[in-house]
Amino acid sequence: MTRLANVEMIPQGMVNAGMPVLQTPKRPISPFEFLPSWFFYTPVVLQSAVLSLIHLDWALPLIANPAIKLSGMVGESKHDIFTSAGKNTREWILPYIALTKDQNKIESLLIDAKDQLAKRKLSYPLVAKPDLGCRGVGVKLIRSDEQLRSYIESFPLSGRFLLQEKSKYSAEAGVFYVRQPGESRGKIISMTLKYSPRVIGDGKTTLKELIERCPRAGKLQHLYLPRHSENLDFVVGKKDEFQLAFAGSHTFGAIFRDGNQFITQALEQKLDEILSDFEGFHYGRLDLKFQDIQTLMNGECFDILEINGASSEAAHIWDSDAALSDIFSTLLKQYRLLYQIGSKHKKKGHKTPNLSALIQAWRKEKLLTQLYPMTD
Predict the structure, then answer these.
(1) What would the DSSP string read from start to end of 225-246?
(2) d(CA 322, CA 340)
(3) Are the C-beta atoms of residues 191 and 160 closer than 8 Å to each other?
(4) What is the pLDDT, as a whole number, of residue 12?
């Protein structure tokens, strides 16, 4: 059993219960955190051009995960990924149902949702999320029929969404797992600890003022103020926590910290076991909820929220203290692995898709993500 040395954990009952108490970062926000994607991916594109020439195939990353559409680079379905997984893997995925909004039949879809939820023995609270989406777009916590109705009404026509059981655990991490074709053991190349942003009340100050005064949240008011517009004048009780974001997405305000020090052989072995029957999955990030950092390190007491493919990032790079050189080197390493794995699959007979398939999937995803409800 792996044990921690002198690492304090956030107590149960608090917003980030079970997460390790890390040293305060040197800077609340990195100058790199919210720069446009092209800034970070320009070197990746240049490296990919070279690798494409070496391998004589630009599309190798799109077959790194043969079980997932386009390897999970763009336009992949969460439901399809879950159903492609083996029985052993599915036992660790939080239960869910999938629904498609067909025309404007809100009432019939609501009835269908409640019927399916009853059959799966699922009840509120639930996590609603688009089946096709990325970076936490459209994720909401649903606590009632009224909130479910509102989510359905705001969802785009012909779009599919999931209603997933809310984990009993509060702590969250993104664990990046890579397993070479033909090998039974994989490797965790990154662990990202995802902290929910919150402010602590003093019994006198309004939520708006607490956000404005917070060293980090005060610089991200554009993310938090619209989300809590109805509660901005609420006075948060003394020592009470007010959670500013629910979704574990950096784009929507979650705080990412480098958790690589907590990667263990025990956790790697557990993921090898869980993913052993998920044929065609070799590269990606598993988003997990867990009891506490100790049990996670021991490979125990966690749930799988999502399995992400080729477009996944080793998200520890968005730690506010991360150096720019580390961000670039991590992304470049990721794509070298994608080409390496894709090349091995091609030698086994897997065919790479054409450019039109990639463009079509990208257009569909971009169109839908613009129409999804506001993220919690």
Answers:
(1) TTTTGGGTT-BPPTT-EEE---
(2) 26
(3) no
(4) 92
